[in-house]
Each structure stands twice: as structure tokens, then as C-alpha cells.
Amino acid sequence: MSAAKPAWDMILVGAGLANGLIALRLLEKRPDIRLLVIESGPHAGGNHTWSFHQHDLTPAQHVWMAPLISHRWPGYDVRFPRHARTLQQGYYSITSTHFAAHLQAQLGDRLRLATEVITVAPQQVTLRDGTTLTAAAVIDGRGNLSNPHLTLGVQAFLGQEWTLAAPHGLQHPILMDATVAQQGGYRFVYTLPLSPTRLLIEDTHYRDAAPADVTALRPAIAAYAQQQGWLLQQLIREEQGALPLTLAGDVAAFWHHHAGQPVSGLRAGLFHPVTGYSLPDAVRLAERIAAHPSLTADALFSVLQHHATQQWQQQRFLRMLNRMLFWAAEPEQRWRVMQRFYQLPAALIARFYAGQLTAADKARLLIGKPPVPLLAALRAITQRQASQRETCHE
Q: DSSP string covering 332-388, please?
């Protein structure tokens, strides 16, 4: 006697960025799929702003992502103690509010909000009320990256969106203003001009571990705004987070830890190791899943593991740069590494963000007097955590 057919072809647990894009791409490419997205919160997307650079996506990817874009600018600025620059490269942001509205409009009753999932398995989920839902495949995209086989730093931040009493005068986002006091690690302020009198201001810290309470950064945002001459009028919203930054790890053990459970987004380790940006990886993953001929749990776990392992191998050099930043540079001097980086050719910087560094780019990044002590840099390049083995022979 054959087993009962699952109620769904796919269940996506969590309606964050990665699963949201998977759902949208599946509906576009496979409109007949029996799809369900389950989110514990009151709306999809949480409370986030996702940004990316023009060259992070292909022209075709820009086309299908266009309805999600909330803001776009023709370039961005960076500021360091001894260097400032405007890069004429497009920069884009998606707000979680816009993302949630678009996802709700496209998914309709295929999106269940305020629904808590207690257990997740490759082919079923159990809800808080005891209901069990079955699917040919379940993808867990609930965001948390908790895996003992990675060595991570964090990019911790507090962001506040303000209306101002007078125009701010910014033409571009300020991606990094590292002229601020460093406070025990690489610190910069990130600012997005959302309208002539509205700003998102984020106080950002690269640290070895997340601070206990990032809300302590509120006075620093107010002080920075005052220094810039911005007249803060009304706080619209606040967001906070701690993005993972990968230094080292064992990718085979990482996936063995998932024990056959398909995962997406941060849970799959899919983000830029140096910046923590996850949107380009989420776009690529959505396309790969939607194009795969088999959407069973086993097939998806295999394709996810293969895709993420490919990314891991391609990011080997980026993890080495992270180790130089975190392990070779004194915390108060880490800004020097990034200042030197932003003096490099604009095309190289674009390829860095897109994760497409050439062999010549890598050589250019290492040539010359390093902004960190040489012996410390050499130790950081080869350093391993005793409990972890780099499977890519970094």
C-alpha cells in the first residue's frame, strides 16, 4: 500500500529574505506548485533593511528583483581618517515593510502569519497547536546560524530611521564613515538617505562577539547626527542585528550537522564572509531551487549542500582577509585595513562585493606594505582553531 501523498509540494519555514525569494521565484517559474510559507511573526520579513551593490546581481536578476526595490542611488560614499571617496556604482535597498507587502500580495493564503513551528523535519513540520503538516520537502529558513563548525566574528549594529527638521543634503548613501571613535573594534556609521528629510543611521561594529546590548548605541547615533548638523525630529523605527562574518570552519561537518534537513539563508551559511550581506546569495539560491527538476527533500538537501560548498570554496580568499582583519590588526587599528581597501580601483571593489575576485585582484590586495604587522598577518593567514579543520586547505 503506497504512502499518502503529502499535502504540500514544499513548505518554507520562516518568511525572511531567503525563503521569501525562493517562494517568489517558485511561483514565477512553477506556478502550479503547492506551496506553503509559515512565519511566526505578524508579517513577513521581520524588521530589516537589505542592501546590495549594482554588480552583485546579473542584469537578468535585476529584472525579477525590481518590484522589491525600495530605494536606489547612483553611487555611495566612504569616509576614513585619511581617505574619502565617492564610488559611482549603483546601490540598492529593500525595506522589510515593502518586502512583506509584496510577498503577501503574491502569496495570498499560501502565507500563514503568526504561526509558530515547534519541530521541523525534512518532510513535515509540527505547529504549536499540535497540527502536523507534510510536504515533499521542507526548507528551514528561520535565520539563526547556530553551528559549532564555523568560527565567526560579528557585525553588530543598531539602526534608527529618523525624519529631520531640515534637509540633510546627502546625495548618496555613506556606506562607511570610519572617522568616528573606534571603541575597541572596527566601527563605522552607515547612513541611507531615504528622502530629503529622512535618514536611516546605523552605528556598526565589527567585533569578535556580539555585544550584550546594542541599544546602548542610541546616544552614539544622536551624537553623530549632531556632528553632521542633522536636526533629528521624529524616530520612525529602530532595527538591530548581529550579522555573522566567517573566519574559518569545516564545511563538510557544517552540512553533516544539518542531518539531511534542507536549510536556506543564514542557516545554510550563505552570506558574504566580510560584509555579512546575504541578498545576492539569496537571489542565486532562489534561482537554483526553482530551476531544479526534483523538489524532494533528499534532492534539495543535495543541491543545497553542493551549492553552499561551491560558495565556500569560492570564498576561501575572503575568509583569509577576515582573519587578517580580526586576528592580525589591533582592534583600534582595523580601520586601516578598510581604508587601504577603498583606495583600490573601483572595478576591483565591485568584484570584491560580488564575490568575483580574479587572481590579479587577489594579488593586488596583498601587494605592498600591509596595513597590519607582517608577522601577525602571516599567522592570521595560516591560523586554525584547534577544534576546527579547514576543509578547503586555506
A: GGTHHHHHHHTTS-HHHHHHHHHT---HHHHHHHHSSS-SS-HHHHHHHHH---TT-
